Amino acid sequence: MKFCDKLCNKFGDKFCDKIGEMLKMNSMLKILPKSLWVTTCNSGSCNGCDIEIVATLSPRYDIERFGMKLVGTPRHADVLIVTGPVTRFMHDKLLRVYNQMPDPKVVVVVGNCGSSGDVFYKSYNLVGPVDNVISVDVYVPGCPPRPEAIIEGVAKAVLKLEAIEKSSRAPEAQREEAV
Amino acid sequence: MSTTYKVPIGPVHVGLKEPVTAWLTLDGERIMDAKLRLGAIHRGIEFMARERNPIQVIYLSERICGICSFSHVLAFIRAIEDLSAIKVPPRGQYIRSLVLELERIHSHILWSGVACYSIGFDSAFHLGMEMRERVMDLLELLTGNRVNYGVATFGGVRWDITPEFAKATRDMIKFYRREFTPFRDIVMEDPIAQARMRGVGVLTKEEAVRYSAVGPVARASGLRVDLRKSSPYEAYSDMPVEPVVPQDYFGAAHGDVLDRFAVRVLEVYQSLDLLEKILDGLPDGPFVAETNLNKVLASLKKAEGVGWGIIEAPRGDDTHIVSLKGGEDNVLWWKVRAPTYASAVSWPLMFRGNELADAPLIINSLDPCVSCMERTLTTNAHGDSNIITKQELIKRCREKTDTLRARGGETR
């Protein structure tokens, strides 16, 4: 904290917040196992993507052989899979689910309508696509994407998490030098 | 002196795959009353259709619901064909029925798996999901897609049945006859699964009529209703379809979750028989009336009037009513009455007197397709007006039951 205070004096609050965020991520990553826990949020999809997500759990595609697991609550999850264009009602709920997840987190959008709107353009009740509401890391296009594509999308999330880890390690090395 | 508590469930909940909110009033573990808030994923699909031409709306109607996508497409297409008098060649009709039955199999197996998952019977869930992949393979073989098939079009279908596909279908029928019976017995003969589902979420025959339950929910309450029998469409006029009711199997209809399970599982066998009949009776000839879509669009531009199509979807009656205006490209208006909304009215009845732990099972026992029903909501349905809408809906539903009764369907 001392170091943080020093930086705050030197670079201002904004920079300090960023460093603090990175440090938090770093400590989280140390205890984060490489198995990803995934949670889903349906923000208005037609169910097509959701049944394909269920299919990834089924014995043929079996997402658990990669150590991935579908969990019931966002508080336990590393990856959030969002399906569907975001409706007005689900906007706040999606934000709430996103904020409940611990850092570091990755958001995967499954399906065309969440990625771009697709067939659901020009509607009065949509605030989507998903990247209008929360920041998205991986897009999985398809209407709906095949289970293989969904697994690939979640696997890309691992790379993303590793990149976050790397970028947060660099300042840690600096910090050790500075101390 | 008992105290009641209000417990909200949803909209995002682990027991639900789709957003719906339920407020349950509890006395201890017993559910005294339930109130539902729908409309979480209302996307305004009927509104969107007004800026698109009928061929574009085919692909929009497919995305009403990902599970019964073909039923919605077919209901919409039949509505347009009804008003514009496009004739479908017999082979096209048979292929449509074939896809409908394949869809019913995949939907019912998915539901049986999810019901097992809800009661914590995970091995049966995985068994069911593994079996379901077989019919998904077949749908992919015919249409190239696993979920939204894009196979129906005005005046027929887009893909023909090849001899290889017919052979693969017969193999699949054999596979299911062999492999599906163990799954059925594992769940239905299991004493724990029975204890979990028997007597839970009861909807009596009288209540089912009064609240206009449709499809497997109505049949599980003992009503012999099936649109494939009472108003046959496509290839069903060539083959008799008897509604599957639990009293034929158990001796009496209880209207509980186990009965709903039995109805859906037995309908899989019925669909297998129908598939065999469809393949045996497949007529030769063209499978689509007109392949040039520009010509179809031009003829639809001239068409005027209101048409309706009604389909026995995996969840019940799916009605589409469409209006076109002469000289205009776009759909004038379009109304969808999806089966889940008709059955969802009886949800609070099913909840009453059950334990909180049964709530997700009861919600799932309807095979709810929330994305289906969300477009039937009025947009101003807030607070009190919500209740009024519901009553109006019940009234309309009752009227529909009356017409069904008048038509001679055995609703008693």
Q: State the helicity of chain A in percent bands.
A: 40-55%
Radius of gyration of chain A: 18 Å
Strand order of the largest sheet of chain A: 2-1-3-4-5
Strand order of the largest sheet of chain B: 1-2-3
Anisotropy-based shape of chain B: globular
- Kindly estimate the percentage of residues of chain A that lie in beta strands according to DSSP: 5-15%
Element pattern of chain A in H and E: HHEHEEHEHEH
Give the CATH level 1 class of chain B: Mainly Alpha
At the third CATH level, what is the topology name of chain A? Answer: Rossmann fold
- Most strands sheet of chain B: 3 strands, antiparallel
Helix content of chain B: 40-55%
Described by the principal axes of the CA atoms, the overall outline of chain A is globular
- Could you state the oligomeric state of the chains shown? heterodimer
User: From the alpha-carbon coordinates, what is the Rg of chain B to the nearest angstrom?
Assistant: 21 Å
What would your notes on this structure say?
The complex is a heterodimer of chains A (179) and B (412). By secondary structure, chain A is of the alpha/beta class. Chain A has one domain: Rossmann fold (3-Layer(aba) Sandwich). In chain A, 50% of the residues lie in helices and 12% in strands. Chain A is built from six helices and five strands; from the N terminus they run ααβαββαβαβα. Chain A has helices spanning 2-11, 13-31, 48-57, 88-100, 112-116, 147-178, and strands at 37-42, 69-70, 79-83, 106-110, 138-140. Chain A has a five-stranded parallel β-sheet, sandwiched between helices. In chain A, helix 3 crosses helix 6. Residues 28-33 of chain A have low confidence and may be disordered. With 412 residues, chain B is of the alpha+beta class. Chain B has a single domain, classed as Cytochrome-c3 Hydrogenase, chain B (Orthogonal Bundle). In chain B, 52% of the residues lie in helices and 12% in strands. Chain B contains 18 helices and eight strands. Chain B has a three-stranded antiparallel β-sheet. In chain B, a hairpin with a 2-residue loop joins strand 4 (152-153) and strand 5. The radius of gyration of chain B is 21 Å and the shape is globular. Chain B starts with a strand and ends in a 6-residue tail after the last helix. Classes of the chains: A alpha/beta (179), B alpha+beta (412). The A-B interface holds A 41-52, 54-55, 57-60, 72-73, 84-85, 87, 89-90, 93, 97, 113, 119-126, 143-144, 146 and B 11-12, 14, 17-19, 39-45, 47-48, 51, 59-60, 63-67, 69, 110, 114, 126, 129-130, 132-133, 136, 146-148, 369-371, 379.
